[in-house]
Amino acid sequence: MTILKFRDLARLRGWILDTSMFRRKDFDALVVTDLNQVIEWVSEGFERMTGYSASEVIGQKPKLLQGPNTSLSAKNMIRKALEEKRPVEATLHNYKKDGSAYRCRIQVVPLFAASQSPTHFLAFEKSLG
């Protein structure tokens, strides 16, 4: 269901997709942000993983999930990759809506329009407990 909803969004936005990436990734949630990292869409799994509903996070930045044990070096690595519009992978200590911590493996890839220009980012997120 999640992948079908994402494919509908991709069609609407005109993104060029390699759909095989979904078969190669292990994820609990998907997050789409614009190039400024403002959340535009999350999958149903995001709410199960974080406790936040889509309506609570759309318009926010993923940093709302960060807290005192979120690695500064990992955040800087992610920021640099996103500035350069290139894929990045990292493991972060994030925080749920209720304040409890969890480890999360994220894989972020740029999404490209037909013009070959990146327009958004897609994050595959996997809770590691």
TrEMBL record:
<keyword id="KW-0157">Chromophore</keyword>
<feature type="domain" description="PAS">
    <location>
        <begin position="28"/>
        <end position="85"/>
    </location>
</feature>
<keyword id="KW-0285">Flavoprotein</keyword>
<dbReference type="Pfam" id="PF13426">
    <property type="entry name" value="PAS_9"/>
</dbReference>
<dbReference type="InterPro" id="IPR000014">
    <property type="entry name" value="PAS"/>
</dbReference>
<dbReference type="InterPro" id="IPR035965">
    <property type="entry name" value="PAS-like_dom_sf"/>
</dbReference>
<keyword id="KW-0288">FMN</keyword>
<protein>
    <submittedName>
        <fullName>PAS domain-containing protein</fullName>
    </submittedName>
</protein>
